[in-house]
Design a protein that fits this description.
Elements: H1 3-26, E1 31-33, E2 40-42, H2 44-49, H3 61-65, H4 73-86
Antiparallel strand pairs: 1-2
């Protein structure tokens, strides 16, 4: 590996660590959901926000929904259904932690 590539890899790793620290400090996190399978990929703070340990947080959408207030589940489903066409979504909901 060239020195330049090693430097860029180290810089990306440092940036990722700073972003994780910022997420943790601010109480936010980032996630992505596959709109075909409804599997989630998340940053560790998201797992904590939902009450899961980062290393034990489920991928399956249905498992994540168990942490959400039942009254908020329908609007999450509607937002995700709309996201299939719009390719993005926004929804606010409550978590039972």
């Amino acid at each position: 590996m060239s020195q330049e590539k090693s430097r860029r890899t180290a810089a990306r790793a440092a940036l990722s660590a700073h972003l994780r620290d910022a997420e943790t400090a601010s109480g936010i996190g980032a996630f992505a959901v596959d709109l075909q399978t409804f599997n989630w990929a998340w940053s560790p703070p998201v797992a904590a926000l939902f009450g899961f340990a980062a290393e034990k947080a489920p991928e399956a959408f249905e498992e994540w929904l168990r942490a959400v207030f039942v009254d908020d589940v329908p609007k999450i489903r509607r937002a995700l259904d709309g996201a299939r066409e719009a390719r993005s979504f926004y929804v606010e909901f409550r978590v039972k932690t």
